[in-house]
Queue: 2 jobs
Job 1
Amino acid sequence: MKTIQAYRFALDLTSRQERDVLAHAGAARVAHNWALAKVKAVMDQRAAERSYGVPEELLTPSLHWSLAGLRKAWNAAKPTVAPWWGEVSKEAFNTGLDALARGLKNWADSRKGVRAGRPVGFPRFKSRRRTTPSVRFTTGAIRVEPGRMHVVLPRLGRLKLHESARKLARRLDNGTARIMSATVRRDGGRWHVAFTVEVERAEHRPARPQSVVGVDVGIKHLAVLSTGELVDNPRHLVAAQQRMRSLGRALSRKTGPDRRTGRRASKRWERAAARLGRAHGRVANLRRDGLHKLTTRLAREHGTVVVEDLNVAGMLRNRRLARRIADAGFAEIRRQLAYKTGWNGGRLLVADRWYPSSKTCSGCGAVKTKLALSEREYECEACGLVLDRDRNAALNLAALAAEFDTAGSGPVAARGADQKTRPRGQVATKREPGTAPAGQTGTVLPRGRTIDRVLAKAH
Ligand SMILES: [Zn+2]
């Protein structure tokens, strides 16, 4: 099975190497901004000409928005725009032009309505201060040194790694991986290199192929499993977040830059900003680590993992919950589970957004009309069952898988069954405001025969 995977390692750059990388990142920005200005100028020119009644065929020819088109324009202009162009790798300019080509395409697709999700704005100029410095290499000498503590990149040469690249090197050595590109980027106040790698993965089976686990991604805990296990948030996360907050307050007490008055930031402000950046990075790392450990374990062990389709975009708009939810990384858990169950030969089932997993009794199947977020215990009026709210939801999710299988529906059967008329239940949904697609408002999908509609295979 061939997959595209990323391997990311922290770098220890010398100050000279850091200067080189920054020069490359700067060159990427120059090419991006030059091409964006050019695209805008041509658009304005054509609009003006049209308003004077110039016929279409006589308009200033429009610029090709593809990477190849932008590159051609850039190569023609670079001797005058950037006479120093020979000092950096051509990959640097390519990085900037590629980002612009993609930005333009996303904007155009979004306007035409071919792109899902939120509307995408027109690409903006990249500022030196606000852009994350990064450069991507797709060709030339990209390799890991035999000692596995250094990588070699075109122009930048031999860079020291902060951690061993043995996991990637092992795959490169036995021929199960091929590096497609390498990106050097500064995030969280530290330099990283990320390799995009095509990996040939061996077929795996989950340790317990018949096992089903329901995962309720929580606020209080990282997740609650239908097995009864509570998976806590990473231990140091809370401490790291507290430190991040206090550093944020410390920063706000210092003299920052002010664009209107042209005031420069104080040295103390700059040091505090760097400390805050590193604290941010640490929080992000801890969170990522916790999520990866959980999803790897679930995918290796269980044949079937069932999760809910949470409307993360809608929930993030809820400001009180937003922080916690963003932290728990709902969308990230699901993304990781999707590819990891694929790697391990298991499957991920995703319950419909409208399936009332929290409001349904896992004992008798009765559905409550109301369940406040503050109610941490589920109490069933029908059968008297009392248990933890999240555990109840996880059990319901796990039970869905069994129904999915007895209904005999694979993806194909599910698609056919989709056409049947669904019985309409009572009005009770777990709907986030403003997220209901037309026609689905105010109906609940009852348990039972509609299982094919409620569950979908994620891959
Ligand atoms: Zn009950």
Job 2
Amino acid sequence: MPKRLILILGDQLDADASVLSDINPAHDTLWMAEVMEESTHIASSKQRTTVFLSAMRHFAQTLRAKGWPLIYSELDNPHNTGTLAGELAKAIAHANPTQLVMTAPGDWRVLQSLRAVAKAHALPLKVCDDTHFFSTVRDFANHAHGRKQLRLEYFYRELRQKNGILMEGKKPIGGQWNFDADNRGSFGKQGPGLLPAPTRFAPDAITQDVMRLVNNKLAAHIGSIAQFGWPVTREQALVALDEFITHRLPSFGLYQDAMWEGEVWLYHSHLSCALNLKLLNPREVLSAAEAALHNGHAPLEAVEGFVRQILGWREYVRGIYWTQMPGYLEGNAQNAHAPLPELYWTGDTDMACLRDAIMQTLQHGYAHHIQRLMVTGLYALLFGVDPKQVHAWYLGVYVDAVEWVELPNTLGMSQFADGGLMASKPYVASGKYMDRMSNHCKGCRYDPAQSTGDTACPFTTLYWDYLGRHADTLAKNPRMVMQLKNLNRLSPEQREAIAAQAQKHRDTQTRGR
Ligand SMILES: Cc1cc2nc3c(=O)[nH]c(=O)nc-3n(C[C@H](O)[C@H](O)[C@H](O)COP(=O)(O)OP(=O)(O)OC[C@H]3O[C@@H](n4cnc5c(N)ncnc54)[C@H](O)[C@@H]3O)c2cc1C
Ligand code: SF4
């Protein structure tokens, strides 16, 4: 019988995972490690590091309670080598296994580093499929094979059919696959009104220990954990799921794209962190959403909108990541080289929309999709920031950030740096989009309708400047025709004034760190 060392990473916290299904405590040892490298290879925010360490420590408790032998390296152990590779080498020396086993990790870099350790010790490393997804990377590769263009919609439909989710026989429930057009509401002038309270959890003793550790060892890292409230155990994650289904799912679709100054949580699920740490399985999440549809609690537009995020986008971006890495990380199709402006680390800006999105990110490690795509992401794209620097920021600041999901969203969907593999066109808009979808512009010193002059909205200036700078390549994209037509309505003088104002705006931004 092989003597196995079963590796469990910080985002693999499910006691029902397939690698643990046939554990034999007499022969097998489990290994988990907190290491500095995971918080420093990109600058991980205090919120993000706290989520990972606290959830890992709670999970270690669960494993120990089952009587399973566990080697666990703590970050503050003076003998901690600081790297996964170093800690694994120590565990191998201690447990003397004949085989290493793990669930496929969420990060290409980590897989390479663990493979190298296995090779150096002449040990076989068995990498098992992650059952916390509906599809495998092989399914995605088969889907992609021979297609000229990849689009979410077709993969999503395939998964709906394969898994019988929101289906009536072979047809989608309600007769259509997609209710996106119904899911673009704003809150209107009157605002969102009384919002359901988010589900937050008071830090227990384990989390408080981690918070002290993070404030001490990672004092210079960005953000604050004064208001930490994320689920860090399976039990808490189930409560968070239940409260989302009960209180927010019915309005999820309608307000999916809406923003409102100072309102962080709105009708979103806030479940990405629990899903990505594997405290929740997406199957149970979608079963709960489908049940809400069938018992009349939530309308089809809301449930389909939610299902599309998890069965569609979440699976799709994972397929993109694993079929495109490692080259994907180098994508810079728009030749963007500006450093990330300092305001991303401080929130110190007079642009109201950016300030709101960045400040809540620093405070909670969370921003909803449209804030990430159409506020922080859009500004970086229009500004012309080096996509790798944008990627490092997103991977560091959000509690749900793991590279398999963060990178395609940032580099592909938001920065168009993969040249259109993820998205059929760059997501670009002027300040008028923000004005339509939020109330930010009402309290801002800038005017979203102006592209030049003292009160010109930087988003609007940079938008026209972006279209002008990339007009030749964008002209090949049929989905950009309308936007370029509008650009061509501007006189040469107007375009010149916009380009000058855009340059002035860039020059006024403090250079990145
Ligand atoms: C630039 C950028 C970076 C992003 N980085 C991450 C990241 O690091 N980690 C992450 O989980 N998501 C990321 N996303 C996707 C999305 O913004 C978050 O999943 C979502 O905002 C999380 O909040 P929520 O749980 O309230 O989501 P909800 O709005 O409630 O959506 C429900 C669930 O659907 C899934 N989902 C929704 N959109 C996406 C998507 N585009 N890709 C993959 N899954 C999706 C998530 O699991 C989410 O919990 C990123 C998006 C952008 C534009
Ligand atoms: S005016 Fe421009 S900068 Fe100000 S909130 Fe609106 S979009 Fe943002």
